[in-house]
Design a protein that fits this description.
The chain is mainly alpha-helical. It has two domains: about 1-75; about 75-250, no CATH class. The protein has ten helices and no strands. It has helices at about 5-25, 40-65, 80-85, 90-110, 120-140, 145-165, 180-200, 210-220, 220-230, 235-245. Helix 4 (about 90-110) crosses helix 5 (about 120-140) and helix 6 (about 145-165) packs antiparallel against helix 7. It is globular, with a radius of gyration of 19 Å.
């Protein structure tokens, strides 16, 4: 069956479709037409049509190859470390890369980066790196220890930013700008902090907007956050900030 295709192939297929759509959106012309711009207007209309076609193609590909197609139409929220890093690493990896892809897309848009290049495969690599490098910390965090949760989430924020920065080089022919470092740190720190909140609360999020709450908390403490991401020991600084914030947020 089509859904028996390996997850690596599925993720690669979706990422390549997104690459093409990303380039088309970057090339769209949305300004008011003037007579001398007729070729650009025609190109813009074609780009919009292709954008819609590729969005439909992605939706169809999800319905055919995803192990859980219905999950893609629900509102994605951050979940706990227990959910993302269970004994069955494969199941946790699939949830992690899907959730973090959609959360990254959502938060980058909130931060003003509406057509950022995002690959789901990057987050599969992050998941594997966290298990490989921080297994002992993960074990402690699952027992509910606040300091361990904060440290794991600090490492997670740095892993997300580092691998996103190295993996998402501009595509050939793409003249747009990727999110700057400050935007990346804000986005991935908010996602990591939200995962920490879900872990510490020890329940699945309902209608809570954990990532937005985390982002607002980091923005409200902008000086502390800027110091943390500028520190020589980012992990220690972010971990201390997360440990302070987690008990006081929903």
């Amino acid at each position: 069956m089509i859904r028996d295709i390996s997850s690596e192939i599925v993720v690669s297929l979706k990422d390549r479709l997104r690459d093409v759509r990303h380039l088309i959106r970057a090339s769209r012309q949305d300004r008011q037409p003037v007579p001398q711009d007729l070729p650009d207007i025609l190109f813009g209309k074609a780009a919009r049509a292709m954008d819609k076609a590729l969005t439909a193609a992605e939706t169809i590909s999800i319905s055919l190859v995803s192990q859980d197609p219905a999950a893609h139409s629900t509102t994605i929220e951050a979940r706990s470390l227990d959910v993302y890093f269970p004994a069955d690493a494969g199941k946790g990896e699939a949830l992690f890369r899907r959730d973090v892809y959609y959360l990254t897309k959502r938060i980058l848009s909130v931060l003003g980066s509406h057509n950022a290049l995002i690959h789901e495969s990057t987050f599969a690599s992050v998941h594997a790196a966290v298990i490989r490098r921080h297994a002992a910390l993960l074990f402690g965090a699952k027992d509910g220890d606040l300091n361990n949760i904060a440290e794991v989430c600090a490492w997670l924020a740095i892993e997300l930013q580092s691998q996103y920065q190295s993996a998402h080089l501009p595509l050939p022919g793409y003249g747009g700008q990727q999110p700057d470092l400050d935007t990346q740190y804000s986005c991935f720190s908010a996602i990591a902090l939200a995962i920490g909140l879900a872990t510490y609360a020890d329940h699945e999020p309902d209608d809570e907007r954990l990532v937005e709450s985390a982002l607002l908390a980091l923005q409200a403490r902008g000086d502390k956050f800027d110091q943390a991401i500028g520190a020589s020991d980012k992990i220690k600084a972010l971990s201390d900030l997360f440990a302070f914030l987690i008990p006081h947020l929903p």
